[in-house]
Amino acid sequence: MGAPLVIVGTGLAGWTLAREFRKLDPNTPIVLVSRDEGAFYSKPMLSNALAGGRSPASLVTTPAAAAAEAIQATVLAQREVARIDTVARTVVLDDRVVPYRALVLAVGADPIRLPLQGDAGDRVYSVNDLVDYGRFHAALTTGAHVTLLGAGLIGCEFANDLAVAGYQVDVVDLAPLPLGRLVPERAGRAMQVALSAAGVGFHLGASVRAIHRDGARLVVELVQAGSMQAEPAQCRRLSTDIVLSAVGLRPRTALALAAGLTVDRGIVVDSALRTNASDVYALGDCAQVGGQVLPYVLPLMTCARALAKTLTGTPTDVVYPVMPVAVKTPAFPLSVVPAPQGIEGDWSFLESDGGLEGHFKDHEGRLQGFVLGGAATSRRAALVRAMGQTV
Ligand SMILES: Cc1cc2nc3c(=O)[nH]c(=O)nc-3n(C[C@H](O)[C@H](O)[C@H](O)COP(=O)(O)OP(=O)(O)OC[C@H]3O[C@@H](n4cnc5c(N)ncnc54)[C@H](O)[C@@H]3O)c2cc1C
Question: Which residue among 50, 181, 350, 389 has its CA within the 20 to 30 Å range from the CA of 112?
Answer without folding.
Answer: 50
